[in-house]
Amino acid sequence: MSAPSILSGPLPPGSTIGILGGGQLGRMLALAAARLGFKTHIYSDETESCAINVATAGTRARYDDEQALGAFAQACDLITFEFENVPDGTARYLENRVPLAPGPRALSIAQDRFVEKSFIAGLGIATAAFRNVANEADAAEAFRALGGPAVLKTRRLGYDGKGQRIVRSAEEAAHAYAEHQGVPAILEKFVDFAFEASVVAARGRDGSFLAYDPPRNEHENHILRRSIVPAPLTGALACEAVEIARRIAEALDYVGVLGVELFIGRNGEIAVNEIAPRVHNSGHWTIEACVVSQFEQHIRAVAGWPLGDARRHSDAVMENIIGAEVEDWLALSGREAGLHIYGKRVARPGRKMGHITKLSPLSP
Ligand code: AMP
Fold this sequence. Notes:
The chain is an alpha+beta fold. The chain is about 30% helix and about 25% strand. The strands form three sheets. Strands 9, 10, 11, 12, 13, 14, 15, 16 and 17 form a nine-stranded antiparallel β-sheet that branches. It has a four-stranded parallel β-sheet with strand order 3-2-1-4, with helices on both faces. Strand 13 and strand 14 (about 270-275) form a beta hairpin.
């Protein structure tokens, strides 16, 4: 079977866009796609999916279920995804049947922190100093080489700080590795940053590139609490941040929206923390504060449409609604802000249940 992985032309309204992953990012992608006249088909392995509720069709099956994947590919004109941990085999299986964007290479790089950091460093872009850790002796040795404090992170399947631990001695590094039960890891030097920021940007099928203004991001318990635009970046620094995202997108021959998470040092030095090959939580404010949101931009890019206007017409603060906070929906609905509730049934602690974006006039 050899279906092309590239589109023959812009995908017309009425076509079906498949989305792998059934969370809130898939939900907001489906809503944006609907606005442009597309149908959407969500594929998720979870019993409950807040994206399926707003899509045209849904499949609930495992990511290695070839029969279900085959039927999904047949039902879709194009497939994209909303999370980076799509198994490599799933992406490659689909790529051989239907146009897929972004491509599997971006996924496989972003899935493994060692591969990802090596790729970024290979482009001459700064990251926290890091070492691969394959055993306890490596962990101790890496700590001695980097100095402390440092952060031990599993190479795979970490998000929102899961699988991470700060260590302050070589012994503690070895011990932390042992606690991860021999799962491959990296040790990273702890970055004493002034603040965190991100670039959410899009690259079209024709290589065109547009970035949203970089927000400042504040985390609580490793989870994004709020994103604020504009970030306190000088014009030159904001340009440098965007240029970093452009180089990464070009090196990956990327198609779609990507998020690049950054540490901004006290003297204005920029280090990349990680790449998210998908729409990003720190870009949710674009729904209210830009003509074309990150979600519509992603749909435009993967569908081969021209990229839309990414300029910001207002200042904005986006706050996540986490866990039981969503129970205050009535009070939240009274705030003068754009409210988004994802419709997830269970409000587990730390779970992103919605977000709220407050606009103010563009600062001079
Ligand atoms: P990650 O899962 O790698 O995105 O990390 C989640 C959060 O942990 C980041 O947004 C930072 O707030 C913090 N963090 C991760 N790595 C480092 C580091 N090397 N130095 C300081 N803080 C870090």
